[in-house]
Amino acid sequence: MSMHRLSGCPGCAEPLEEGDRFCGVCGYALSSPPPDPDPTPTLPVTPVAGPGAGPAGESALAGGSRSPAPAGPRYAAAADPAGAALVSAPASAAGTPAGDTAAHAGFSGVPAPGWGGTDEHAPTPAGDASARPGGGPWGSADSGHETPYDEEPVRHDLPGGTGTPPGGTPWGPPAPEDPYAAAPQGDGGKTCVACRAGHVDTDGYCEHCGHAQPRERDHLEEELCSVAAVSDRGLRHHRNEDSFAVAATALPDGSAATVAIVCDGVSSASRPDEASAAAAGAANEALLDALPRGAHPSEAMHGAILAAAAAVNALAPQTPGAQNAPACTLVGAVVSGGVLTIGWVGDSRAYWVPDDRAALPRRLTEDDSWAAQMVAAGLMGEAEAYADVRAHAITGWLGADAYDLDPHTASFRPDHPGVVVVCTDGLWNYAESATDMAQILPADAAARPLHSAQVLVGHALDGGGHDNITVAVVPFAAEPEAAQEAEAEAEPEPEAPARAETEPRTEA
After folding, report:
1. What pLDDT is recorded for position 146?
2. Which pTM value belongs to this model?
């Protein structure tokens, strides 16, 4: 007596192999009866009751076969708390000359004590094979995913654009439920976000349709009163290897200090997602420990980068001579006492964008990359260097197999208000110059930092989202000159000493 075996999938006719329980193309459960020509479902699958589960039988298809439902955008919907409409994108800054050097009118350098210059990089011999690839405009070699919006171009950065993503956006009406929130089941498990019926196993896959469930780090947002950050997996990477930390603390004099740290895991290294998370957390803790004790911001930033490097080094295997240790880049910003302090290692960047868009925006960091070294050495022009395939190979990073660590720190004292944009190359690959960054940053960025971070991430997604995208927006409020003059006038003048004699006296 022989057992009958299906030769093709009843749902899509895909050839099957012995032992298959699910169709590899449409996800059809082979244990289900074959499809019925009658369009009325004959074997409806009742979704498990719970938050996020759809109405009973809603997702049952003809014959009981099922296909994954659209998962919607990979970011959580967040309505504007004020309900205000997004302003139009600012026009290009008129009369803005080319160039992105940090030295410009309105900035006065504040020396970082004991750390040397701000443009020194760890030297890398030409052709050194140990230089890590920095990701470039096409991200890493990870297996990617195609953009879910392939019908027509989708604008994430402006409301009312063509092809508004389904389920709402962070700048439109919120979705009734988070499309990526796996619904809990009665037994404590989770329901698949695609079919809304299958149980999610410990590996993160649906046991019914086989759909991979999104990770918690696929899209993250955080906002404090003085800083906001957004991180997104992008459209091509299978996981988010970026990480960030934002915080605020008080200085000994009672004034506030704002901290933003952004890290980008090196995709060619092992466990890059763990490296970036460890670095961001360690740097943030070090700054929150040093600043309230009165440490100079440059000194605190230097120590924070060293602490981040130690945290990443601790992830490396203890095997002697082990290669490909976990690694990441780091860029951080501290705003305190009218001073802006930047620290970095690698090719993550910080930009200064004034509130007055007639003033010049500037890039505040210099990449630790092959292209930057060629330009600094005078061997190639900037356009030629960045057009080379080796342009984004980084020459500095945090990790056990890095060169001698050379943290860069720089301090500035802007004389006008603005915002600091701290980001990974997943964003600046789509807005490389400071002028480009200023054009896509909303004009009200200082008042709405979270909204502005969402707009910047949306711009990178519209550009292709080939890499993970992380950005922090830190407002900087310079003290007006009028207020400083008023304070000076309010100070009482010292009284003139009493005159004891009317005639000068000459000592013998």
Report:
1. 41
2. 0.60
